[in-house]
Design goal:
globular, about 240 residues, single chain
């Protein structure tokens, strides 16, 4: 199905698997050209690009560590050179490290905050000049129910995802009059490798009694990309675990 998003260009970080993959494909189904970022999982990212092209949309594969400014600059330049100016950014890339509280080190803390939160700042800053010039943009940040309830991974992860909400609120307030909508999605226990490999993540925690599906998160991302009057919000896709 083609919509008003057709012809736009999106960059989805961490798009090789899980929620990022589902969002990249959902946007492509709307006619969006997609920059598919990956860090290590090249084969999976290539398959995402192939699927996007089967939908009749354009794609470019771009390897980058989004926690490094030099990688981010190269990534954005490559996507815009091949596909055009980026008008939709999905900050999805992230890592989790389930650990007992007493085993979390300063190194663990720094890595989680750098990959999960600093990366959002770096990529957003890199794409903003073009969005501000055209006075149109959509920035979608992937947070987590951990930002609201602590979650099942640890305080380092929860802090990184809570920081995502503060980042979202600040950008949304600063950019609202420039036609740039900035929102967050806070999923809970969506059926990805990150969740299924964590024994603390059990479907009975969720009021609905099941894990979420990546497609259910992707549907919300497409809605946020389409909506021009929704900004500064956290959309909770969590089966009722946290109600707000």
């Amino acid at each position: 199905m083609r919509t008003e998003l057709a012809g736009r260009v999106a960059l989805v970080t961490g798009a090789s698997r899980g929620i990022g993959r589902a969002i990249a494909l959902a946007l492509a189904e709307q006619g969006v050209a997609v920059g598919v970022n990956f860090h290590r999982h090249e084969a999976e990212a290539k398959e995402v690009c192939a699927q996007i092209e089967r939908f009749g949309a354009r794609a470019v594969l771009v390897q980058a560590d989004v926690s490094r400014a030099d990688n981010v600059a190269r990534m954005v330049e490559q996507v815009q050179r091949v596909l055009g100016e980026i008008s939709i950014l999905v900050n999805n890339a992230g890592v989790s490290r389930p650990q007992p509280l007493e085993q979390i080190t300063e190194t663990d803390w720094d890595e989680i905050l750098t990959v999960n939160l600093k990366s959002m700042f770096l990529v957003t800053q890199a794409v903003l000049p073009g969005m501000r010039q055209r006075r149109w943009g959509r920035i979608i940040n992937l947070s987590s129910v951990a930002a609201q309830l602590g979650g099942v991974i640890g305080p380092h992860y929860a802090a990184s995802k809570a920081g995502c909400l503060g980042l979202t609120h600040s950008y949304a307030a600063l950019l609202a009059k420039e036609g740039i909508m900035v929102n967050a999605i806070a999923p809970a226990l969506v059926e990805t490798e990150m969740i299924t490999s964590n024994p603390k993540a059990r479907p009975d925690i969720i009021p609905l009694g099941r894990f979420g599906k990546v497609e259910e998160v992707a549907e919300v991302a497409v809605m946020l990309a389409s909506n021009g009057y929704l900004t500064g919000q956290t959309i909770n896709v969590n089966g009722g675990w946290y109600m707000s």
